[in-house]
Specification:
Length: about 575
């Protein structure tokens, strides 16, 4: 915090409204902001940077800035302010705003704009910014230009309260306030009465917003308990970002009561942590790939919590099962489209109430059901560990850190192959580690910037797992990390292009030369020079053991070179090893 800041500075007729808006966001609970340079947004930037309750980070590239804000909000759970100047600067926020909407991440986007008289007349840096983000913005408001009166101050303060509450409440997401600003854009002093712009004297928000949890009613709990009790061979699927809606302990209690395994996606918060992990199954992707195992372990009921996991084999397996989805926001994240029921209720409260109902009535558990899943998961883990040891591979690169992770560490995982390899091969861990990824829109853009945002929110050690295309795609994020003085530890697999395409039908049917040039798209970038851009040491490594040694030496860009064709073959080998290990039980 910056001591001594007068949060009702009322510098001049342009700054006073902005300062009131920013002060009210802080009163609502905002602690972080991401700013981009410019002239038109100078009042917004300077007000955010000066406020004693807000930590502002400056990012030059607007696209990277959007993802820094997204990473901050995702890791902290609070709305983060994001601001830029007028024109195409605001348009560069769109990828992050789209991801924030799809992933339910709260942002308050403040775009500076020309006043109405400078729109549509050829003035510089003026584009149509009204509802610029379309349906990706949960709420849009044109803030307007008003006379500097007490009524205007009240309007702006309540507007800030509404923006914060809308971003955070219900189905969280981004809100967009378009802020037209007239001269003076510099903080020149004018005769302005600070009392006109002051907030409530006790420091409270102008309008406090309370949101009740959606607790399931007794009839819903009783019906679900009846379904679970009648299905001793059931499973809980703990999907992406579940920890934001239901702590691991609540889900673990329900699993223990029902006697069901928990198929825990790596970003669910269930696969890693000090909670009871005796029901957690980490290698479900490899298990359900095996037709014999999948057929023998068809569940009588699936309770799905959190967003759908990435695993395509798991989704196909789920599509054949009876499913109940619990989603507090009714977001309809149900790609199998076969769920019997969508329970719109708080996930933590639902787990607690359902566990209590089952404990009260008792259940007829199939002890062999859970034991078979646990034995299969143990066998798969052993087969994977044996295959990865001492060998250079992409799955080995992305899971190498597992034994070295400690409580409080943050791991950001890129889309494409990294998240899939982590989902398939990362074992369950006792360390209290936060694993995050951008799986709303599933793009690779903003990967480094998102990891930077998470690191700023949490502190401590932050690791980024990515391929070289995701890294090169976000050099702006890498430069932002260097400028912020934050050292990430990056484990980057360099397979000279997009390795995931080798697993897709396009690799079998397209012209090889055109496929390489236009789909695989090798970047041909020297990662040692990329590391220098971020002020990081460059350390080449191959095996998991070498990667752990390279990481232990301190923050660095650890480059792991692999072969794309060999990677496809190795994945098939790994899955065959898992199937053989399970069939040998």
């Amino acid at each position: 915090m910056k001591p001594g800041m007068n949060t009702s500075m009322a510098t001049n007729r342009t700054y006073a409204p902005v300062e009131a808006l920013v002060d009210e966001l802080a009163r609502c609970g905002m602690t972080h902001a991401v700013t981009c340079p410019g002239s038109r947004d100078a009042p917004l930037v300077l007000a955010l940077a000066a406020h004693e309750r807000i930590e502002a980070v400056s990012v030059i590239d607007e696209r990277a800035a959007g993802f820094v804000a997204l990473g901050l909000a995702k890791a902290s759970g609070r709305p983060v302010a994001l601001t830029c100047t007028s024109g195409t600067a605001a348009a560069n926020f769109l990828p992050a705003v789209a991801e924030a909407w799809e992933a339910r991440v709260p942002l308050v986007v403040l775009t500076a704009d020309r006043p109405p008289e400078l729109r549509g007349v050829g003035a510089g840096q003026a584009i149509d910014q009204l509802k610029l983000f379309g349906t990706f913005a949960k709420w849009f408001c044109e803030v307007g230009n008003h006379e500097p009166t007490r009524d205007t101050a009240i309007h702006l303060r309540q507007l800030a309260c509404r923006a914060y509450a809308t971003a955070a409440g219900g189905r969280p997401g981004p809100v967009h306030l378009n802020v037209p600003l007239r001269e003076p854009l510099a903080p020149v002093r004018e005769e302005v009465d600070p009392a006109v712009w002051a907030g409530r004297p006790d420091g409270r928000p102008w309008t406090a917003v309370s949101e009740a949890r959606r607790v399931p009613d007794e009839a819903t709990v009783a019906r679900l308990a009846e379904l679970v009790a009648a299905a001793p061979r059931g499973v809980i699927v703990a999907g992406a970002d579940l920890a934001r809606w239901a702590p691991a302990a609540a889900v673990a209690r329900l699993a223990a009561t029902a006697g069901w395994p928990v198929l825990a996606e790596p970003t669910s918060g269930l696969r890693c942590g000090p909670h009871d992990r005796s029901h957690v199954v980490a290698h479900y992707d490899g298990l359900v790939r095996d037709e014999a195992f999948a057929a023998d372990h068809g569940p009588e009921l699936v309770l799905r919590l959190g967003d759908a996991p990435t695993s395509k084999p798991l989704r196909a397996w789920l599509a054949r099962a009876r499913q109940v989805v619990v989603d507090p926001h009714a977001s309809w994240h149900e790609p199998t489209r076969v769920a019997d029921e969508l329970v719109v209720a708080d996930a933590e409260a639902t787990c607690a109430a359902l566990a209590a109902a089952l404990e009260a009535r008792g259940t007829d558990r199939d002890e062999g059901w859970l034991a078979s899943w646990r034995a299969a998961d143990d066998a798969a883990a052993a087969a994977v560990a044996e295959a990865l040891a001492g060998r250079a591979s992409e799955p080995g690169a992305y899971t190498a850190l597992a034994p070295a992770l400690r409580d409080g560490d943050t791991v950001w995982v890129a889309s494409s192959m990294p998240i899939r390899d982590l989902e398939s091969y990362l074992p369950a861990l006792g360390a209290d580690v936060l694993v995050l990824a951008n799986r709303g829109a599933n793009g690779i853009d903003g990967t480094v910037a998102s990891a930077l945002g998470a690191a700023l929110a949490r502190g401590g050690r932050t690791y980024l797992l990515c391929g070289e295309l995701a890294l090169v795609h976000d050099l702006g994020g890498l430069a932002a990390a260097a400028r912020a003085g934050l050292e990430l530890t990056i484990v980057c697999v360099n397979n000279d292009g997009g390795g995931i395409f080798g697993f897709l039908p396009v690799a079998e049917h397209a012209d090889p030369d055109r496929l390489r040039e236009h789909i695989v798209t090798p970047a041909g970038v020297d990662l040692e020079r990329v590391a220098a851009l971020a002020g990081l040491p460059h350390r080449p490594a191959s095996t998991p053991e070498e990667i752990r040694a390279a990481v232990a030496a301190g923050p660095a860009l650890v480059e792991v070179r692999t072969d794309r064709d060999a990677n496809v073959a190795f994945h098939r080998e790994l899955n065959a090893r898992i199937a053989a290990a399970v069939r040998g039980l």
